[in-house]
Write a structure and sequence with these properties.
The protein is an alpha/beta fold and 272 residues long. It has one domain. 28% of the residues lie in helices and 22% in strands. The protein contains nine helices and twelve strands. It has a seven-stranded mixed sheet, with helices on both faces. Strands 5-9-10 form a three-stranded antiparallel sheet, with no helix packed on it. A hairpin with a 7-residue loop joins strand 6 and strand 7. The longest helix has 14 residues. The protein is globular, with a radius of gyration of 19 Å. It starts with a strand and ends with a helix.
Length: 272
C-alpha cells in the first residue's frame, strides 16, 4: 500500500498537466481512497481543482442516494436478499442534506456542503455543482430523465474527469445508451416528502455501467489525457467525443458495453 502523502501543489500540477484551465466545465467522479493519503483530504482536492477552473469554471458530480430508492421488481419490500431486508422504514426520503452513496465517494459528499454549491432535488439521482453554471445545471430535474444535468452540460465544451481512471463510474456514457438502448434503463421507486407526508414516486434509473471500462480501448489517443494523482490513474476526455464514441460502438454492437454478469437485469434486457 502506498502511504506517501499527496501534497496540495501536486494536485494543482496534475490538473494543469491534464490541460484544465480557467473557464473549463468538468463532470468528475473520483474516490479519495483511490488516490491515497491527501494532505487536506477531499476538501483540498476540490479547492485545488476549483482554483484551476477559476471563477468562470464549473464542477459537477453525481450525488446519488440509494437509500431513497427501491426496485419495482418486487412489492412490500420482502424479497430475500434485498438490502432493506423487508423493512420499508430503512428507506429515507430525499433531502438536500442526505449523504450520497458510499460508492459515489467522499469527494462528492464534501462538494455537497461546499460554499455556494447547488444540488438538484431529484429524489434518487441528484447532482451537485459548484461554479459559474451551477444553477442552470441543477435547477430543474425530471423523474423520467436522470441525466438532465449532464445533457445541459454537454451542450457546451465540457470534460469528464475520472479520478481512478475507470469509465465504469462515468454517468455521461449513459446518454449514449439512452439514445441507442433505451430499454437498458429501468423503473424504480423513490421515497419523497410531500405536504401529506412520505410517498413513493416512480423514477427512471440509469442501467448497468459495469461494462463501461471496455470503451477505453476506443478512445482517441489525440483527445485522451492521463496523469497519476497519488495512486490513482486519472483520465480526462471531452464529453461530447466520449458520448459520440459510445454511440458509434453501440450502433455496431448493442452488447459492446454490457457487463458479464448473467443475472444483471439491465444488461439482460439488451440481450433479449
Amino acid at each position: 500500500m502506498n502511504t506517501r502523502k499527496v501534497l496540495p501543489d501536486e494536485l494543482t500540477k496534475a490538473f494543469e498537466k491534464l490541460g484544465l484551465g480557467a473557464g473549463d466545465r468538468v463532470a468528475m467522479h473520483g474516490l479519495l481512497s483511490r488516490i491515497g493519503i491527501v494532505e487536506g483530504g477531499a476538501a483540498m482536492i476540490i479547492h485545488r481543482l476549483l482554483n484551476v477552473l477559476g471563477k468562470k469554471g464549473t464542477l459537477l458530480m453525481p450525488a446519488y442516494t440509494a437509500v431513497t430508492r427501491h426496485s419495482l421488481t418486487h412489492d412490500n419490500f420482502t424479497k430475500t436478499g434485498c438490502w432493506c431486508e423487508g423493512i420499508e422504514t430503512r428507506h429515507l426520503p430525499f433531502i438536500p442534506e442526505l449523504q450520497p452513496d458510499k460508492e459515489i465517494g467522499e469527494i462528492a459528499h464534501r462538494l455537497c456542503s461546499w460554499p455556494a454549491s447547488r444540488r438538484s432535488r431529484h429524489r434518487a439521482f441528484s447532482f451537485v455543482a459548484v461554479g459559474n453554471d451551477s444553477d442552470p445545471l441543477v435547477r430543474g430535474y425530471s423523474l423520467t430523465d436522470p441525466l438532465q444535468p449532464l445533457k445541459t452540460m454537454v451542450k457546451e465544451d465540457s470534460f469528464v474527469l475520472a479520478v481512478g481512471g475507470e469509465l465504469n463510474s462515468i454517468e455521461a456514457i449513459h446518454i449514449a445508451e439512452q439514445t441507442r438502448l433505451p430499454g437498458k434503463f429501468t423503473k424504480e421507486r423513490a421515497l419523497t416528502l410531500t405536504s401529506k407526508g412520505q410517498i413513493w414516486v416512480e423514477v427512471t434509473a440509469p442501467g448497468c455501467s459495469k461494462g463501461f471500462q471496455k470503451l477505453v480501448n476506443y478512445l482517441s489517443p489525440r483527445d485522451l489525457r492521463q496523469v497519476d494523482i497519488g495512486s490513482a490513474k486519472t483520465l480526462l476526455y471531452p464529453m461530447k467525443e466520449l458520448i459520440a464514441t459510445a454511440e458509434r460502438l453501440l450502433e455496431e454492437n448493442p452488447m459492446a458495453l454490457s457487463c458479464e454478469r448473467p443475472n444483471c437485469l439491465s444488461c439482460q434486457a439488451v440481450r433479449e
